[in-house]
């Protein structure tokens, strides 16, 4: 089971869209995929038609429980998505209170990793959507994954948010052993080659992060929004769209790299 987290300490950069689109493409080639919504806003949860205000069970349970996390407890959280090879562990709005509660509590940074270990045999890939704030939920997302995807909007000031994220990754890596350092891929999003802001920020990303930047650049594509309104993964809604093509290219390069190292 491979676990990839999608994170950036900036909102609205395409995190949830990246999770849903990559998941759809993995499912299409036959992989069993689990999505985990660690954002208290619950956009990923809402995407598949669930209301984060009304769910009885969610990621919150992993933090609230005094008992040890077991398989039964994790299976209770699983919901179906609109795709039969994709399941979801949803977010609930109660998770917003976790940032305050869990701070300073021993071991709270590994709750999600422990939960995923319980369902290791049921899925090929896990994709984790994380909130744009550095707190216990993001720490869980970073601790549970082997590889991190960082969508970055190609616009002025894009690098500012990214620098914060890169500092967070370095902090996490100081605590990890040499063989388990967290690697990351920067995904330029909302690219519009007609605008100077897109062109120059992409160039800047290449200059500053030549080894981490993905060759696949995600263009502005209104079909992502249309797919989200219908609750479908973008590749099911329209497999020929430019945006889906770009994510497919990204995925091919990730799978290629995975052959050489553990992602
Ligand atoms: N490449 C794109 N082209 C056009 N629209 C996009 C693209 N990617 C995402 N969107 C749309 O932009 C909005 C924000 O995207 P998304 O929800 O994926 O960002 P996010 O980083 O998860 O945001 P948040 O920080 O609020 O969770 C959504 O309405 C989505 O449909
Ligand atoms: Mg989101």
Automatic annotation (TrEMBL):
CDD domains: ParAB_family (cd02042). InterPro entries: AAA_dom (IPR025669), DNA_Partitioning_ATPase (IPR050678), P-loop_NTPase (IPR027417). Residues 2-175 form the AAA domain. It comes from the Bacteria. This is ParA family protein. It comes from Neptuniibacter pectenicola. The lineage of its organism: Bacteria, Pseudomonadati, Pseudomonadota, Gammaproteobacteria, Oceanospirillales.
């Amino acid at each position: 089971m491979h676990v990839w987290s999608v994170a950036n300490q900036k909102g609205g950069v395409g995190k949830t869209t990246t999770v849903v689109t990559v998941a759809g493409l993995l499912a299409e080639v036959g992989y069993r995929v689990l999505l985990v919504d660690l954002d208290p806003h619950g956009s990923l949860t809402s995407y598949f038609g669930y209301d984060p205000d009304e769910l009885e069970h969610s990621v919150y349970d992993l933090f609230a429980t005094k008992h040890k996390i077991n398989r039964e407890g994790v299976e209770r959280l699983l919901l179906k998505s609109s795709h039969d090879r994709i399941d979801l562990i949803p977010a609930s709005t109660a998770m917003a209170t976790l940032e305050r509660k869990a701070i300073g509590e021993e071991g709270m940074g590994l709750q999600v990793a422990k939960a995923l270990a319980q369902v290791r045999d049921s899925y090929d890939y896990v994709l984790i959507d994380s909130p744009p704030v550095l707190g216990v939920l993001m720490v869980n997302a970073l601790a549970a994954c082997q590889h991190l995807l960082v969508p970055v909007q190609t616009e002025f000031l894009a690098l500012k948010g990214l620098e914060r994220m890169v500092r967070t990754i370095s902090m996490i890596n100081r605590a990890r052993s040499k063989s388990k350092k967290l690697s990351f891929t920067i995904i330029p999003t909302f690219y519009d080659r007609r605008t100077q802001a897109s062109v120059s920020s992409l160039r800047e990303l290449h200059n500053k992060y030549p080894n981490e930047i993905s060759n696949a650049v995600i263009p502005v594509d209104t079909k992502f929004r249309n797919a989200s309104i219908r609750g479908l993964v973008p590749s099911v809604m329209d497999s020929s769209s430019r945006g889906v093509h770009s994510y497919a290219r990204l995925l091919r390069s990730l799978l290629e790299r995975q052959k050489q190292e553990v992602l």
